[in-house]
């Protein structure tokens, strides 16, 4: 980009701006059907959502009622959007000899920027400042109320910035700068001197090409009932007759989509984007939700313009049973939405555990989901393939909640050296007197709470404070702290503390408590816990975790993700024979593994899976197949590890540097058929990728191999992430855990109750990370996995025999 100096123009008389292409455009599409504005507001009312600030949090800015305020010490802000042809309008003012710097930042790989200075003086003038960089400058006289109006119009390679000022006595003046702009641009806002404010920042893009021809459904298709979609002169009407999604035949990646919709009272619909032909938006692409609900309803992952199931909107602006104007803008991993001109959604999906796995290109669709809905003025303005500004693509430090909770949805994080510590504490409550359950030093977070009795009252003291921030009945704790998934016993949560956390209980009946926690380095950002405020986790995490938990419970996951597949289906494996069904060259990470076999083949230990990594002489994992898929004998259940949909699927990631093979072995006395195995894998470009620091490994032991009274033993360095074992009426419990020869607190559970969080007499209890069903019991330690450097030993109680078991680790690669 560059400023074309010979096009500079200065006007200091009564406003009479040069009218060129985009001004006419603004007049022609300033409202949709005369009802709603097509321009969209780029500021949220009270937050900086939509404006990036690099690897560190923004400093020095205040957003109040849609007015951005800052001073010379405020860090620069960068827009989450770029534009080609556009009209940008805003009001600005300065104080204390203030000066705004408005930079037009080049998108994609461009390193160019066009800085423009805005300030006040006694004279109006516009000029080019040649040093230090080519820049434009507009200096205007003080206005009556301190505010100046600005319009930036860009058409093709031409751009013009006009600033208008109302002076005393009713006069007005304007100053203009014209310059050349090559390529798309975004905005950077900063204050060079003094202080300043910006308000009413809006953007108006060209409307794009029509998606509906006004007469029939040419260019659209649906796997559902096409008769549910009625084309009319200016609308497509969904009459709610099992119409599925009405989908465009063309696929779109980066675009601005605009439309009007009107929905019946209490209706439900959605706009699908970037979805593979055979996929479903909420699981494989994205769905921008449309839901007619009372305006007073709290915003959730199901509200209008939520990225369905994953990210709640930031505001509500829809009107029930009336026409609403929607604009959806996508750029790479950035997804934004406006309703009636109000910014209601903005998310960088690269930072979200579920959405970063989704497709970045696919069909656009309208959903039939239980309500008559009318759509009109559907238009799409396609953008280039690049993914927006560099500031939004750069990696940034992740908060504690992102580091830990992401493990539930992307277990490859457990293979990365992220220097997150772990710990557990067990306490026996013996009377109703007040008792301390835990005193923890920070920075850290409690992630699991298990109890054998729900009575009593808890008090949580943070950071050494004399008064508790939270006091609540024990059985109401899940309502007062972040709820991860759906389980309340054991409770998966995230309760962060910077310096310390003390938890006490009183008025309780006798019982046992176990708390698992994590420890962070001092420089890891941590959200602050408040009993009556915003959840202390990164935006989008809790909805996504709840969504994933539900989806696996229903038997669905990323079936149509953009990753490649490998494997073989329909094999016959003779007795005492085996077949290699997966053979991958590295480096890479297997994201999920699906065994396609009859459920009866998981009823015994005849069918085995053997995983070999990097051509090692022995398999990294070799165990009966049923130990890979615990709890599925009676169907799906909400959890984070396994599901059954056209095959048994395990979601634990398997990194490999040079090669990974999976063998299916039949150790039984009769042939089995058909047997298949399919994996979804992510090829990596670098053998030094941090995701390759560890390998998934498992040790399988039989009941007869238990003379040393150890549930699991492993040498080397790594993390213990799971144990699947047989159980019976006289099953042994856990006596102790030794890490590198040292006993650890919180690991004595003679009947497994506090470790599993379930009744030891239960035969069928299945939870998000623990369970007991069909002769197996299990727990996956994904949130706070015990870490060891030399030796891991999980010892059993004396007496009863141990059952067959599979212990699962991520071990440091050689």
Strands, total number: 57
Supply the number of helical segments. Answer: 6
Distance between the termini: 49 Å
Q: Overall pLDDT, averaged?
A: 91
The major pleated sheet works out as: 13 strands, mixed
Percent helix among the residues? under 10%
User: How would you name the oligomeric state of the polypeptide chains in this document?
Assistant: single chain
Unreliable runs, pLDDT <50, ≥5 residues?
1-36, 127-134
Strand content: 35-45%
Rg for CA atoms:
30 Å
Q: Helix/strand-derived class?
A: mainly beta
Shape: globular
Please characterize this protein's 3D structure.
The chain has 814 residues and is mainly beta. The protein contains 6 helices and 57 strands. Strands 3, 4, 5, 6, 7, 8, 9, 10, 11, 12, 13, 14 and 15 form a 13-stranded mixed beta sheet that branches. Strands 16, 18, 19, 21, 24, 25, 26 and 28 form an 8-stranded antiparallel beta sheet that branches. Strands 47, 49, 52, 53, 54, 55 and 57 form a 7-stranded antiparallel beta sheet that branches. The protein is globular and about 95 Å long.
């Amino acid at each position: 980009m560059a400023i074309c100096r010979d096009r500079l123009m200065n006007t200091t008389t009564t406003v009479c701006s040069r009218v060129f292409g985009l001004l006419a455009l603004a007049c022609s599409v300033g409202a949709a059907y005369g009802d709603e504005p097509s321009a969209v507001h780029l500021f949220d009312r009270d937050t900086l959502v939509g404006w990036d600030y690099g690897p560190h949090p923004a400093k020095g800015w205040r957003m109040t009622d849609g007015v951005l305020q800052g001073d010379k010490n405020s860090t620069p802000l960068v827009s989450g959007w770029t534009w080609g042809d556009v009209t940008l309008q805003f009001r600005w003012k300065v104080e204390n000899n203030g000066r705004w710097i408005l930079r037009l930042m080049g998108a994609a790989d461009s390193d160019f920027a066009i800085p423009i200075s805005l300030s006040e003086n006694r004279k109006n003038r516009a000029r080019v400042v040649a040093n230090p960089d080519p820049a434009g400058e507009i200096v205007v006289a003080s206005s009556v109320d301190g505010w100046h109006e600005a319009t930036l119009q860009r058409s093709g390679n031409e751009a013009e910035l006009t600033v208008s000022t109302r002076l005393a006595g009713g006069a007005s003046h304007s100053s203009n700068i014209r310059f050349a702009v090559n390529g798309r641009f975004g905005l950077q806002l900063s204050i060079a001197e003094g202080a300043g404010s910006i308000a009413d920042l809006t953007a108006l893009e060209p409307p794009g090409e029509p998606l509906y021809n006004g007469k029939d459904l040419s260019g659209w298709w649906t796997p559902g009932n096409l008769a549910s979609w009625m084309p009319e002169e200016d609308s497509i009407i969904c009459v709610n007759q099992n119409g599925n999604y009405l989908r465009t035949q063309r696929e779109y990646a980066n675009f601005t989509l605009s439309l009007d919709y009107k929905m019946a009272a209490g209706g439900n619909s959605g706009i699908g984007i970037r979805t593979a032909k055979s996929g479903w938006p909420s699981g494989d692409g994205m769905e921008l939700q449309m839901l007619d609900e009372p305006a007073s309803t709290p915003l959730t992952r199901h509200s209008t313009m939520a990225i369905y199931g994953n990210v709640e909107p930031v505001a509500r602006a829809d009107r029930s049973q009336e026409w609403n104007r929607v604009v959806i803008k996508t750029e790479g991993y950035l997804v934004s939405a406006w309703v009636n001109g109000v910014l209601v959604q903005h998310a960088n999906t690269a930072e979200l555990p579920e959405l970063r796995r989704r497709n970045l290109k696919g069909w656009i669709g309208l959903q039939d989901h239980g309500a008559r809905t009318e759509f009109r003025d559907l238009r799409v303005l396609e953008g280039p393939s690049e993914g927006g500004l560099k500031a939004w693509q750069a990696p940034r430090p992740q908060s504690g909640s992102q580091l830990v909770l992401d493990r539930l949805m992307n277990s490859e994080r457990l293979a990365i050296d992220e220097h997150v510590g772990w710990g557990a504490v067990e306490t026996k409550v013996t009377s109703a007197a007040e008792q301390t359950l835990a005193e923890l030093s920070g920075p850290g977070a409690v992630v699991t709470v298990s109890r054998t009795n729900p009575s009593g009252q808890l008090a949580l003291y943070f950071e050494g404070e004399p008064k508790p921030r939270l006091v609540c009945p024990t059985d109401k704790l899940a309502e007062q702290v972040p709820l991860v998934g759906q389980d309340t016993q054991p409770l998966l949560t995230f309760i962060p503390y910077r310096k310390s956390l003390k938890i006490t209980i009183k008025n309780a009946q006798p019982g046992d408590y176990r708390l698992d926690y994590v420890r962070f380095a001092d420089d890891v950002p941590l959200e602050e816990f408040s009993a009556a405020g915003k959840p202390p986790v990164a935006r989008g995490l809790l909805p996504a975790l709840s969504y994933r938990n539900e989806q696996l419970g229903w038997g669905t996951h990323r079936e149509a993700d953009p990753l490649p597949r490998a494997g073989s289906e329909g094999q016959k494996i003779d007795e005492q024979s085996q077949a290699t069904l997966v053979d991958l060259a590295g480096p890479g990470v297997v994201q999920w593994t699906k065994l396609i076999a009859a459920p009866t083949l998981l009823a015994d230990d005849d069918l085995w899976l053997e995983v070999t990594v990097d051509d090692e002489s022995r398999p990294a994992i070799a165990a009966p197949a049923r130990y890979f898929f615990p709890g599925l004998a009676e169907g799906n259940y909400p959890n984070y590890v396994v599901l059954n949909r056209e095959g048994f699927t395990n979601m634990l990631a398997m990194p490999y540097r040079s090669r990974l093979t999976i063998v299916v072995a039949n150790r039984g006395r009769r042939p089995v058929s058909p047997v298949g195995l399919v994996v979804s894998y992510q090829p990596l470009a670098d053998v030094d990728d941090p995701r390759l620091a560890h390998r998934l490994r498992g040790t399988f032991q039989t009941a007869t191999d238990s003379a040393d009274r150890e549930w699991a033993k492993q040498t080397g360095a790594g993390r213990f992430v799971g144990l699947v074992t047989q159980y019976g009426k006289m099953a042994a419990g856990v006596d102790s855990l030794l890490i590198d020869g040292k006993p650890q607190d919180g690991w004595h559970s003679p009947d497994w109750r506090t470790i599993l969080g379930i009744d030891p007499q239960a035969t069928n209890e299945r939870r998000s990370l623990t369970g007991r069903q069909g002769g197996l019991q299990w727990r996956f330690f994904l949130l706070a996995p015990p870490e060891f450097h030399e030796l891991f030993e999980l010892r059993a109680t004396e007496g009863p025999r141990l059952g067959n078991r599979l212990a699962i680790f991520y071990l440091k690669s050689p």
